[in-house]
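Morning!

This is the sequence you dropped in the shared folder:
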Amino acid sequence: MSMICPNGHVPEGDERYCQQCGSLIDRGVVQEAEHEPAPMSADNMPTALVRPAPSAPPAGGAVPPGHGQPSIAPTLIVSLLCGLVGLWPAIRHSHMAKQRGLPAGRYWWAFGVPLFASVVVSVAVIVALGAGRSTPTVAIAPVPVSVPVITTTTTAPTTTTTTTLSSPPTSSIAQTAELQTWANDPQKCGPVPTPQPTPFSADDQYHVTATIHVWSAPSIASTPLGEITVTQYGPGGIGCPTDSQPTVEVSCKTTGDTITGPFGPDAVWEQIQWNGSTVYVPDEWVDTQWDVNSFASC
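The structure's back. Tokens below.
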């Protein structure tokens, strides 16, 4: 048993006096010291209250199984393939990392980056499909190719009093009455009729008294567009009217080339409609009588 002297020394054994300072040992202090619990230390602390010190990691930096950094691969793969389902491994592994005192942010990056990428790709695909549907169709107009077409028209022959000549032969033109020179003979067809107060023709139809051309203008220098053929004549021969001769309807009169016929020089030409065209004939070879004075001017 150890005893304490008044000077605080703890002498060895049961000596009455302190071996270090020679003071008398106080018995009361000794008794108190006997019943006072010893100071608590690591040697006399109860086992239940002693917290074991963390064990140092093994040499070489190796981590014991079950105590390392959880892998981010599950979170990355599940988030990339299943989207929001990757939230479950991210929460689980980040919690495990926190329990082990390790960083947990990498799991949220492994969850968020693939999810963001999948959203961007989905939006891009939707936009591309929408643009493809709304793209207007461009119609390519065919390039016109000119192909020569040869058309053959066959006109059935018809019997009329007019023969259309686009370029009549010189011999045919020379045979018509207005292109020939005639001796002056006013009474060739009989006495010259006396003008009357009534029209000679009530319907403006007048007989043609010789074979003549119809002309594009009141001149024999213009283009002959057709021919009025006369084969029968009244008493006196060519130029004398008869009811069997063809007739023309006069629209108006005008002045043109002077035609020298048996009834005297005559510069009056009548405008008529012939086969749908407006043409001119010399008054010298049309039996207009005194009606020529009342025709309207063209």
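Headline: The beta strands are 162-163, 205-207, 212-215, 224-228, 247-261, 264-274, 277-282.

More detail when I'm at my desk.
O.
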